[in-house]
Amino acid sequence: MQPEKQTSSKGSTIGLALLFGVIGASLTSDLENFWFGALLGALLAQIFHLRGRVQALDEQLQSLRMSIELPEPTRRAPPSPATAESTPPAAPATPAPATAAAQAPAPAPQVTSPVPLPVAQPTAAPTPPRERVAPTPTPPRRPAPPPEPTAIDRLVGEFISWLKRGNPLARIGIVILFFGATFLAKYAAENSLFPIELRFVAIAIGAFALLIIGWRLRDKRSVYAQLLQGGGIAGLYLTVYAATRFDLLPTGLAFGLLVVIALAAAILAVGQNALSLAVIGTAGGFLAPIMVSTGSGNFIALFTYYAVLNLGVFAVAWFRTWKVLNVLGFLFTFTITGLWRVNGYQSDDLLAADAFLILFFLMYVGVSILNCVRQPPDLKGYVSGSLVFGLPIVAFGLHASMVSPIEYAMAWSAFALAAFYLLLGWMLYQTRRESFRLLVEAFAALGVIFASLAIPLAFDTRTTAAMWAVEGAGLLWLGVRQERKLARAFGALLQIMAGIGYLIGMHYRNATDLPVLNSTLLGAVMLSISGICTGYWLFRNRAKQARYEGGADAVFTLWGVGWWLLGGLREVDMYLPSASYGGALSFVALTVALLAWLSLKREWRLPLLIATYLPPIFALIALAGALDFVHPFIRWGAVGWVLLFAAHFSMLRLGESRDVQGLNWLHAGAVWVFTLVVAWEASYQIGELTTGVWALLPWGVVPALVIAWLGRQQLRPRWPVAAREKAYRVYGALPAAVGMMLWIFMINISSTGDSTWLPYLPLLNPLDISVALCFASLAMWWSSLSVQQRETSWPFDWRALIGVIAALVFVWLNAALIRTLHHNFGAPITAYGMAHSTLVQASISIFWGVLGFTAMTVAARQRWRYVWIVGAGLMIVVVAKLFLVDLSNVGTVARITSFLTVGALLLVTGYLAPLPPRKVSEQVTE
Predict the structure, then answer these.
(1) Is residue 618 very low, low, confident or very high in pLDDT (cuts 50, 70, 90)?
(2) 3-state secondary structure of 863
(3) CA distances for 697 relative to 703, 733, 805, 814, 829, angstroms
């Protein structure tokens, strides 16, 4: 049982304290009496509260006593019949033990009347006690899937798995043996332990021994035999290269021996189908010069040696598709070449180094082609992808780092590489081999990429952007025709990069540029045309698009329109400074016409929608921009606004036949913009001619005229106003009416109504006449609305609307009174001055009393109960104001007049204006 919630005395205490405090202060006009009265009211509230609590506690005590004195059967309520019927019969009592039955004799049965024995009902078996069910264990959360391995992770994993296959101990041993032999040879050379010739002979004998033993074991233990042969090949590489570095072998002979070793390794690997042998031999060959390096910087010997090794890789690729071997050679070759470029390159080495670089590049391009002869490339895998796409990037990067000091060398290099790839792709395409199909597409893409790269290397950023945009549009068109997703994606990416490059290189003004014929405008136009064409091609191909390409046609169309507007508006601002504002509006109107023509010509709906919604969007931007220009007709703005409105209504007319959505709001928006532009311009022009309140009047008069025009019973013209009655009479007029009411409120609380060269007359001055015109237009407009239109315009209680209008009228009339006192009697018009002005306060009290009296009298005659209540509330406010404000200076004539006038009005009101009844049949309240 929950305890009873006690009542609180907080509300009554505050209320009585305020009431008695106000009464005390009003009687003596002293602040101390306010606190005394408040204390007295609080004490009275507490007394009343305690008295109520005592009475409640006494009642609870009496009820508790009565419940205790009642007997037990009386307090226990008998069960209701329904409860008795629904209660199941009690189970028979458990028989007592035999001893108890013997002690208690059974009473004799008394038979009064034959009562039928009740039929025995089958009793339900006793419900066994419920076993405690163990809670079901929550299944463990499934761990998140591991992240996808990177290319480096896959390479390391494959190396580890290769090491574990076959004979891992032997593989580890051969690697360690190779490094040990290398370190031994280097140590012996540095310490001159043996004659150098003897050292190299010993290494060569050991290498041959490994080769012979491995060859003899090729059938019995193939894996072990391949490891030994790989170690022997690596040892021979090491011997020949090191002997050449120490001038023990002529260069020609050494080169011949390296070619023989490379061919021998390739023959052994291909003959035995041993990838491990090829990998070990190749890795050993590439590591040999690193291990025995003395830092002499003889890059000719190094790159010649690597050329021979790569020749072996190429020879293997002719017979076997071992992509791991290809990537291994590629990584060793270009990694070591890059390290040499950083640490040992001199400008005099350009020709020789670049020749070796081109040779390596051609070799691995050939390797890629040879692999495709037997197996199509997997460009998504790290093996084929790194060789096909990584090779030109690495090679061109190294080449560019060497030729960058030469003017236009990088541009011509990129162009030559693009031509090479495009020509090679075309030659492979002519073979019509299916295995070349993906490689042809890759070469074509690389050709386009390097052709695109050649453009910024040779031209400025704006020209580059234009060429990239056109190139991207062409690639996307090709991708649409051939249904190639990669080509479409690259074309789109190229256009985006073109736009970014254009923005980076765009400058606002250049004295050398010519109107229209300048790279800035032409670049923007090319970006625009490329984007719009791309959007159109994607629109025509939307049935065959991928899921991720949905909406791409709209994006690129808007992209193209945006670049068109950017370039055109910049051109107008630069070369038409005296008509920039009107020129910008006119250019947008021209854009709307071009988009409409394109839509009708190509039966493409999207440009029509853009052209329909572009004028209102740009109108808002233009209005925001006009804030910097003071008024909207500056710099031929009048011509621009006329053309923009003409384009807007033309699109609205065209949109009705094309079922464009949202036309009602677009018609209404035209009303708002028109009203704002005309009011703004009229205010500016009047402000230029005179001073005072005149410049503020158009902000209310222009909306009033528009609302009055839309409040006629028969709207004109037939189109668009009469044809779209709801759009204009409701959607268009309602915001104008709200703005006009805000203007009424703001101008009455902030303006003095100074009419400058005209004398100030109460209610007949320009400000009050304009406000009266606004109220008249509101009444005219509201009376023209149908019931449904009124519900749409004001979905709330109609009495709230009457209250809003009455409040505005009240503010207006009070402001008119204060302005009259200010201009005719010199009363202050500031907030502080009005609060301390006896004349103003007394006049407001009398005026409010007259308003309350008038409202109550009219309401009593018309039986408007709510209006009478509002008038009575105003009279209560007047009375409170008399005691709280006017009473402080009771000795003044004005305050005495206010008291006497309000008192008389209350007496007359009480006699003439009793409270109207709720219904006609009720009697009038006296």
Answers:
(1) very high
(2) coil
(3) 10, 19, 20, 19, 20
Residues 334 and 440 both lie in one domain? yes
CA distances from 167 to 218, 227, 270 (A): 14, 9, 21
Residue 105 pLDDT class (50, 70, 90 cuts): very low
**Same domain flag for 382 and 261:** no
Q: What is the mean pLDDT of residues 361-385?
A: 66
Residue 634 confidence (pLDDT) above 50: yes
Judge if 287 and 358 occupy the same domain.
no
- Read off the pLDDT of residues 241-298 as tens digits, 9 standing for 90 and up: 777 767 677 766 766 676 677 667 667 766 666 666 666 666 656 766 665 555 556 7
Res. 763: pLDDT tops 80: yes
Whether the ω angle into residue 149 lies within 30 degrees of 0, i.e. cis, is: no
911 lies in some domain? yes
Q: Are residues 417 and 348 in the same domain?
A: yes
Q: Vertex 383, ends 380 and 387: CA angle to 5°?
A: 95
Is the model's pTM score more than 0.85? no
* Coil, strand or helix at 925: strand
- Among residues 67, 96, 111, the one where a domain terminates is 67
Burial 300-325 (b: 16+ CB within 10 A, else e): ebbbbbbbbbbbbbbbbbeebebbeb
Spell out the alpha helix ranges (H) of 626-759.
Answer: 637-657, 663-689, 698-710, 725-726, 733-750
Compute the distance between CA of residue 270 and CA of residue 370 in angstroms, rounded to an integer: 15
Task: Note whether 328 and 287 are same-domain residues.
Answer: no
Output the pLDDT for position 107: 44
Task: For residues 181 and 264, state if they share a domain.
Answer: yes
Range of the domain at 242: 172-295
Bridge partners (DSSP) listed for residue 925 = 915
